[in-house]
Automatic annotation (TrEMBL):
Domain of life assignment: Bacteria
EC number: 2.1.1.130
Family, similarity comment: Belongs to the precorrin methyltransferase family.
Pfam family for this entry, one: TP_methylase
InterPro entries: 4pyrrol_Mease, 4pyrrol_Methylase_sf, 4pyrrole_Mease_sub1, 4pyrrole_Mease_sub2, CobI/CbiL, CobI/CbiL/CobIJ_dom
Catalytic activity: precorrin-2 + S-adenosyl-L-methionine = precorrin-3A + S-adenosyl-L-homocysteine + H(+)
Known pathway: Cofactor biosynthesis; adenosylcobalamin biosynthesis
Oligomeric form and interacting partners: Homodimer.
Keyword Methyltransferase found: yes
Enzyme class: transferase
Name of the protein described by the UniProt record: Precorrin-2 C(20)-methyltransferase
GO biological process terms on file: cobalamin biosynthetic process; methylation
UniProt keyword annotations, A-Z: Cobalamin biosynthesis, Methyltransferase, S-adenosyl-L-methionine, Transferase
Length: 257
């Protein structure tokens, strides 16, 4: 009988890198990248560039020779998606079982609409003994709010973050309910969103931000001027509604004057 104890698997670390400016990589993520953990980074297709890897390279870190790309295709085809996810998770578990930590590079924040959450869940299903460490980071909408000096919420204001795919009717309702709306993944619906903002008289309270923090960053205040344009997937809209009517707040939750 063998007395050898099996080697424990490595940890799976989700390193949030912020939305594009390497100065927004947190110290914890920076340390994880330099900890000797093996790097994994997401790509849309084999051999295509990785936005997340680009952030780290701009930060001046050398990409280790054994860094590995995992393919997460941008498709709605459920078969292709399931196949890609299964391949990515199986490979991740295989590498973790070699005993070395893995650091998965995440654009923005790893807990906000990120591939990492799903990857970590599938990995845990395949290998429940794997420890997962999620390093928080700066989301694209936080950086977009900062660079455009748009408050997301002040005092007792509210804000909502929603993928535009929920559609115009839902967004029209949310405009009434929140002081600020953050609309993500706006690319396919941009013209309809511009029309909605025009109808509601909110065009001058909206701002479009593309690739915030990256060298190609674009900030557009004249949102109507974007009508008909094909924008990048990495773009969002911030919309303030100064007309929002607020309900009563409970006593005790308000700052005393
Ligand atoms: C899958 S989500 C990723 C969100 C990311 N994990 C974060 O914390 O910001 C992708 C959407 O986030 C927004 N986004 C992500 N990075 C961006 C960037 N650098 N500039 C502008 N919008 C970005 C866009 O709306 C894009 O369609």
């Amino acid at each position: 009988m063998s007395t050898m104890t099996p080697r424990p698997p490595g940890r799976l670390i989700g390193a949030s890198l912020g939305p594009g400016d390497p100065a927004l990589i947190t110290r914890r993520a920076w340390d994880a990248l330099q900890s000797g953990a093996r790097w994994l980074y997401p790509v849309k297709k084999a051999e295509s560039a990785s936005y997340a890897l680009g952030i780290v390279e701009r930060g001046g870190l050398h990409v280790p020779a054994d860094a590995e790309a995992l393919v997460f295709p941008m498709t709605r085809d459920p078969v292709a998606l399931a196949r890609a996810w299964s391949r990515a998770a199986t490979r991740t578990v295989e590498l973790l079982r070699e005993g070395r930590d893995l650091v998965f590079l995440v654009e923005g924040d790893a807990s906000t609409f990120a591939t990492f959450g799903h990857l970590a869940r599938v990995v845990r299903e395949l290998a429940p003994e794997v420890e997962v460490d999620t390093i928080p980071g700066v989301s694209a909408f936080a950086a977009a709010a900062a660079i455009t000096a748009t408050p997301l919420a002040e005092e007792d204001e509210t804000f909502a973050v929603i993928p535009a795919a929920y559609g115009i009717e839902v967004i029209a309702r949310l405009i009434d309910d929140f002081d600020t709306l953050v609309l993500l993944k706006v690319k396919p619906l941009l013209d309809e969103l511009i029309e909605l903002l025009r109808q509601r008289g909110l065009l001058q309270h909206a701002c479009f931000i593309e690739k915030v923090g990256a060298p190609e960053e674009r900030i557009v205040h004249d949102v109507a001027g974007l009508a008909g344009e094909k924008v990048n997937y990495l773009s969002l809209l911030l919309v303030r509604n100064p007309e929002r009517v607020r309900g009563e707040l409970r006593r005790g939750c308000r700052k005393r004057l």
